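task queued by scheduler; priority normal; single chain, no ligands, no partner chains; default sampling; output format set to C-alpha cells
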Amino acid sequence: METLAKAAYWYYVQDLSQKEVARRLGTSQSNVSRLMRSARELGVVTVDISYPIHRELDLEDELRSAFDEFGVRDVVVSQAFSDTHAPGDSQAAVMSIARSGAEWIRERVRVATRSLQAMRLHRVAGWIRSAQVRGCARMR
C-alpha cells in the first residue's frame, strides 16, 4: 500500500510522468498505469471536481455520437437550474445557458490562440533556419 501511495503522490501531486514514476520505483510504465487504476479503485486516490458543472455531460456524449455522421463535433447541454435556484426558474435557466455558452467560446478562443501561437513560432523558426542557411552560404 505504501508503494501505491508513493506512486500516486508522485504522479498526481508532483505531476511526474508515468515513465518517471516507473523509473523511481524500478518497474515498467504499464505497471504504474495499473497502480494508478488500483489507487483509484481502493480509494487511495479520489477525484473531486470542484468546478460547478451545470451541464448534462452524458447527454452531450450521446448527442455528439448520434450526430457525428453530420459532422457535429461539439454539443453543450446546459441544466436549467443551479444549486441556488429552483427548477423551472427561467432566470436561472438563461444564466446557466449563458454560462455554458461563454465557457464554450472561451475554450475555443484558448485553443485557437494556442494554435496561432504555435503557427507563429513555427514560422519564426523557419525564418531563423532560412537566415542561418543563407548566412552560411554567404560566408563561403
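post-processing summary
- The mean pLDDT is 80.
- Residues 52 and 82 are 9 Å apart (CA to CA).
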